Amino acid sequence: MNENRYIKSNLKSKKIVWEEEKPIRWSYMKILREFSTLKKEYPVNPYAEVYQMRDNMWAIFTETLDGAGDPWMYLIDGPKKAMLIDTGFGVGDLKGLVKEIVKDKPLIVACTHAHYDHAYGNAQFEEIYCSKCEVQRMNAINNDKIWDYLFDENGKPKWTEFDRNDLIKYQPYKITGVADGHRFDLGDGYEVEAVLLPGHTPGQCGYLDLYNMTLFSGDTSGISKAKPGELCAENCTVLASRNAFKKLQPRFKDITGVFPGHGALDVSSVSLQYHLDACEAILKDPENYDTCKERYMPSTNTTRKILMKNIHQGTAIRYTLDTVR
């Protein structure tokens, strides 16, 4: 990416490494972050920008710390309880920021999946909910070594500058797995439903606000390879993603907006159908891809061929031939 095409920001984080620019996403984010009147900043957390997207729902933006996509978190203010979806990298006072918005209301914290940018802030909270198929991966990051990869041998950040002292203090937390279709009660009949949308990880889970009918979808476009003996390993396939979107399909028409883990917000629910269409195309002919890239895997000292099938008006499903079925 041309570093001159940066987005002006008051955030305490400053990128060192720039990912490959996604033209449509970049222009959307520049307009949102530089010109939108929705944006609000809170001194309690200088690493976050907050955007009110519904009367009782906020999107929380932070910059990536590891050179990948900038993640979103979401906060719902229910009648008696609030709900936070995802916890980010764990830099800055997310807990204090949430309290600024919803005051002392009891808080439910749920994660879409266990990746760095969505769940490394978990230790600020006593209990985290996730899909029962993600509990194994969530347990693997419940330790104080998870941030080590962000720093070089001299202790300096490798991808994004930030103050190491602003990382949260690690403390063990309880992990509670829930079934597909589990409903969280925020009071007075206000419910948020867990919707299993696997493929990216075994238990990648969206959350459907049944009052606003908004879907917080997490990361759905990249299909990862399951680890040997992993719980719900069969979920790490294009087939599992297709089946989950097919199950949700009758409800597409009722969803008023999709809020993903990265990129544009409040996306039309037609994007869910486009994702389903791309999955169907891969299953029909896995080798009829749109783009292919070689990716070195340092953990195995091998190079993997990453295939990409474009999603209409969106991003692409990334997969390998051994993660189709």
Look at the structure and name the CATH superfamily.
Ribonuclease Z/Hydroxyacylglutathione hydrolase-like
For the record, the count of structural domains works out to 1
In CATH, the topology is named Metallo-beta-lactamase, Chain A
| Number of helices in the DSSP assignment | 6
What series of H and E elements makes up the topology? EHEEEEEHEHEHEEEEEEHEHEEE
Number of strands: 18
Strand order of the largest sheet: 2-3-4-5-6-7
Strand content: 25-35%
What structural category do the secondary elements indicate?
alpha+beta
Radius of gyration: 19 Å
Shape: globular
Major pleated sheet: 6 strands, mixed
Give the CA-CA distance, first to last residue: 34 Å
Q: Could you name the key traits of this structure?
A:
Metallo-beta-lactamase, Chain A, 6 helices, five-stranded mixed sheet, globular, 325 residues
Word description of this protein:
With 325 residues, the chain is α+β, with helices and mostly antiparallel strands. It has one domain (14-285): Ribonuclease Z/Hydroxyacylglutathione hydrolase-like (Metallo-beta-lactamase, Chain A). 18% of the residues lie in helices and 26% in strands. It has a 6-stranded mixed beta sheet with strand order 2-3-4-5-6-7. Strands 11-12-13-14-15 form a 5-stranded mixed beta sheet, with no helix packed on it. A hairpin with a 5-residue loop joins strand 11 and strand 12 (191-196). It starts with 13 loop residues before the first strand and ends in a 6-residue tail after the last strand. The mean pLDDT is 95.
